[in-house]
Amino acid sequence: MSDFPRITRNPEIMGGKACIRGLRVTVGMIVGQLGAGVSIDELLDEYPYLEREDVMQALQYAAWLAQEREIHLEPTA
Q: For the chain, what is the domain count?
C-alpha cells in the first residue's frame, strides 16, 4: 500500500478496516458520506482532524479497490 501512505490497516483499530492515518476514521465512512451528498468541506468541518489530502486519498484508494480485474484461467482437462 505504498501508493497510499495515508491509508493504514491495523487489526487493533476498527477491526483492521482501511483507516486514515491510524485514526478511527475508515475509508468506507468517508466514501459513504460523500456518496450520501456530504461535501468535502462539510466533511472537513465535521472532522477537523482530517485533511483534504486524507479525503482525496480515501477516494483514490476506493477507486483502486473497485477496479475490475480480469483473470483468464486455462480450462482444466
A: 1
Q: Given its phi and psi angles, is residue 34 left (phi above 0), alpha (psi -120 to 50 degrees) or beta?
A: alpha
Residue 40 lies in a domain: yes
Q: Is residue 14 pLDDT above 80, yes or no? A: yes
- Domain extent at residue 15: 7-63
| Residue 76 identity (one-letter amino acid) | T
pLDDT single digits (tens) 46-76: 999 999 999 999 999 999 998 877 777 777 7
Q: Whole-model pTM?
A: 0.82
Are the C-beta atoms of 39 and 53 separated by less than 8 Å?
Answer: no
The grid cell for 43 is 466533511
What is the domain-level CATH number for residue 37? 1.10.10.10
